């Protein structure tokens, strides 16, 4: 029995190492370090380690484990492309950098809840309807809960539109900026 426990312990640690390495590669890519690249096939293998027999749900995240601000991204775009550029501009307006916040994708509720518990941020921001539904366990249209702080286990949650929605409908930028100003007020980020 002890040998089986040891094998399972080593296997679990190996899986955590692979997952950490996968996150490191993804973070380096976001930072523009193109010397560390993996093929998509290799990335898929790394993401599925420890999940035999079922299709792996890819839970991606990046950022410091002591971040006060935690984003949940409905589309998993993080800081990539035009959507990511717009998110980086929003952070810049908040006097923050992508490296100072924690962000994850809204692909796996259990992983999100575990990360929130581990990090204990002061504020959560859900980007998009899917992320809001997942975290707040509601099923209302985005317009009904966007822009109003919601409670989640003693943490304030600000649901807002995803940057892709802002690119498609620039008129929403004002609403998002009002949401972000509420977050800045709560975090004391005004200069």
What does it look like?
With 191 residues, the chain is an alpha/beta fold. It has two domains: 2-48, no CATH class; 61-187, 3-Layer(aba) Sandwich (Uracil-DNA Glycosylase, subunit E). The protein has eight helices and six strands. The chain has a six-stranded mixed beta sheet, sandwiched between helices. A hairpin with a 2-residue loop joins strand 5 (150-152) and strand 6 (155-160). It is globular, with a radius of gyration of 18 Å. The model has no long low-confidence stretch (mean pLDDT 83).
Spans where pLDDT lies below 50 across 5 or more residues:
none
User: What's the CATH C level of the largest domain?
Assistant: Alpha Beta
The separation of the N and C termini measures 60 Å
Shape: globular
* Helix and strand sequence: HHEEHEHEHHEEHH
CATH topology category name of the largest domain? Uracil-DNA Glycosylase, subunit E
Structural class: alpha/beta
Helix share bin: 40-55%
Tell me the number of strands. 6
Radius of gyration: 18 Å
